[in-house]
Design a protein that fits this description.
By secondary structure, the protein is mostly helical. It has three helices and no strands.
């Protein structure tokens, strides 16, 4: 296969791995904070996401450092893209909707 095409595919695989990793992190945070057992959510998610990402990096690299570097660049690009999308999405929602008592709600109780 052409070396340029291999490197482009490695970068694309990095974007997919990054989307899975950071999208899964975002999903886990949303589910974990309302769960009765958040530690299981976070630990299980961490193990799954890390396993998939590390296995993906291993197979994409194929023993060539150039492919590994471009895969990492794609991974970081996915992080930046998802961070921007999540911020845009969260800014569309009202961050602290008022509760029935008229006070703004907070995510965590203040003690």
């Amino acid at each position: 296969m052409n070396e340029t095409l291999t490197l482009v595919l490695a970068g694309g695989a990095g974007v997919i791995l990054g989307a899975f990793f950071f999208g899964g992190l975002w999903w886990t945070i949303r589910k974990g904070v309302v769960s009765r057992q958040p530690a299981l959510w976070f630990l299980g998610s961490l193990l799954l996401r890390m396993s998939v990402a590390l296995a993906g990096f291993y197979f994409v690299s194929g023993g060539h450092w150039e492919s590994l570097v471009l895969c990492l660049v794609g991974f970081v690009m996915a992080r930046l893209l998802l961070a921007r999308l999540v911020m845009t999405w969260s800014n569309r929602r009202e961050p602290n909707p008022p509760d029935p008592g008229g006070r703004p709600c907070t995510l965590l109780p203040i003690r």
